[in-house]
Amino acid sequence: MIKKSKEDYSFWTKYKRFASTEIIMYLIMILGIGLGILILS
Q1: Please, what sign has the CA dihedral across residues 14, 17, 22, 25?
Q2: In angstroms, rounded to a whole number, what is the distance separating the alpha carbons of residues 30 and 41?
Q3: What b/e readout covers 5-28, taking b as 16+ CB neighbours within 10 angstroms?
Q4: pTM over 0.70
Q5: What's the CA gap between 32 and 39, in Å, rounded?
Q6: How far is CA 1 from the centre of its chain?
Q7: Coil, strand or helix at 1
Q8: Transmembrane ranges (predicted)?
Q9: DSSP calls for 1-41
Q10: I need a surface site. Which of 1, 5, 16, 23 has the fewest CB within 10 A?
């Protein structure tokens, strides 16, 4: 039981880091698309 909870904790910390980097990537993508539309229009 204790080992499982530790594994879950490490998984969640890894997932949080991955999610935060993914959110930053999505924001950069959205900004890039927005700029592209503004430049093209």
Answers
A1: negative
A2: 16
A3: eeeeeeeeeeeeeeeeeeeeeeee
A4: no
A5: 10
A6: 30
A7: coil
A8: 21-40
A9: -HHHHHHHHHHHHHHHHHHHHHHHHHHHHHHHHHHHHHHH-
A10: 1
Structure tokens at 8: 């879950």
Tokens of 37: 């539309």
Instruction: Scan for tokens 């539309």, then name that residue.
Output: 37
Locus of tokens 């998984």 = 11
**Dist CA 41 CA 7 (whole Å):** 50
Token pair belonging to 17: 């880091």
